[in-house]
Amino acid sequence: MIKLYHAGYEEIKKPDVHYGRKNADFGQGFYTTDNLDFACGWVREKPGADIIINSYELDEKDLKVKKLERDSSWFNYIFSNRRVKPDEYAEYDIIVGPIAGDTIYDTFGIITSGFLTDEEAMRLLMVGDSFDQIVLKTQRAADSLKFVSSAILSKERIAELRKQYEIDNHKYQEAFALVMRELDK
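Above: the chain's sequence. Below: its structure in token form.
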């Protein structure tokens, strides 16, 4: 059993793997993480809505799981999903792997414009911390997920997370700029 978290604006006892964007990192599915702090910091405030942290337990022993690392296979899979190509890992119930940084859209745009090679893009995508997302892709996976609880994120915790995000983002932007300068030489 692994403990998983999903942040959003509502309590979700029974997730729908067919809800959401088809062009997300790992395609359509129910996105979770095993890192509570990451889950809490991922969702953004929305006027008139509370941020809800849903907690689950997943029994993955009978599920087909694909584990991706931050490498060219991961990069190609995300690139393909962002372009809504057929899912090359459609036979898997769960996909586990690093979340792509916020700059991935820009990086893909630069690649398709011919300004960066795939190798240079990979260097940019390796900048910063890496957190895993655990995506339930099939109904079988969703049926193996047990809802444990939900909680509203406090305003104090949201303020702490926002402050930490600003610190982390500043470090990330500096590291990203350094790699860009190195690539420009």
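The CA atoms of residues 9 and 48 lie 10 Å apart.
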